[in-house]
Design goal:
Layout lengths: L1 H15 L3 H17 L9 H7 L5 E5 L5 H10 L3 E6 L2 H10 L7 E5 L2 H4 L10 E5 L7 H14 L5 E9 L2 E3 L2 E3 L2 H7 L3 E5 L4 E2 L5 E9 L1
């Protein structure tokens, strides 16, 4: 738990530091550029997955940060509801300043995903998203989060992860798990692990996978 606490402290600190509103606004603009090329990067399966699963219109953005992806889903993919789960209150405050229109379709949930997702009431296939969130959390917390997802996700839901996978590797705030680790925890989900983005440090690891609730 100490490692997870350190990860949260480092995560929260970046949003509490000076000039973050301007920095995050710039980040949002960069991600919006070039026809949203960001979501089609080799290590991010979200764009291609959304293109396939066009009927899904409810989302859960895990580790939502300042809300860029949550608002992308609403503004560009016509999602009717997105739960933006984020433990940092400072990040949510910035998110609301960048997107001051208070779109009802985006609901910020201030808390830890392993606790908050289990409280959601989802009655239709849902798009669950992470972008390098699980990589910074220990196995116990990721396991709890995956169990929470599994407990609320209707059949047909999709989990898109810009997360590392491959040979086991654990270092402070950086964790990589093999494909079987993920699939054994979620046996009712069909996984697809992409090898488009190979990591150089360490080698024999990749980034990006999806899973579909069957």
């Amino acid at each position: 738990m100490d490692k997870d606490r350190d990860s949260y402290i480092n995560h929260n600190r970046q949003y509490e530091s000076g000039g973050q509103l301007e920095h995050e606004t710039k980040v949002h603009n960069e991600k919006n550029s070039d026809n949203f090329k960001f979501v089609y990067q080799d290590d991010i399966p979200h764009g291609r997955t959304l293109d396939i699963h066009k009927d899904i219109k409810v989302g859960v953005d895990i580790g939502a940060g300042t809300g860029w992806f949550a608002h992308y889903l609403v503004n560009e993919r016509s999602f009717k509801k997105v739960f933006a789960v984020e433990p940092s209150e400072a990040a949510i405050d910035i998110a609301k300043k960048i997107n001051p229109t208070k779109k009802r379709a985006v609901k910020y949930v201030n808390g830890f995903a392993e606790e908050e997702i289990a409280k959601l009431k989802l009655d239709e296939p849902t798009f669950f998203s992470t972008m390098c969130v699980f990589a910074h959390l220990t196995d116990n917390v990721v396991e709890s989060t995956l169990k929470s997802i599994d407990s609320v996700a209707p059949v047909g839901s999709v989990l898109a992860c810009s997360e590392p996978w491959g040979d086991v590797y654990h270092r402070h705030c950086w964790h990589i798990r093999p494909p079987e680790w993920w699939s054994e925890l979620m046996p009712e989900w069909e996984f697809e692990f992409y090898q488009d983005a190979q990591l150089n440090d360490p080698p024999r690891r990749f980034k990006g996978f999806i899973a579909i609730r069957t």
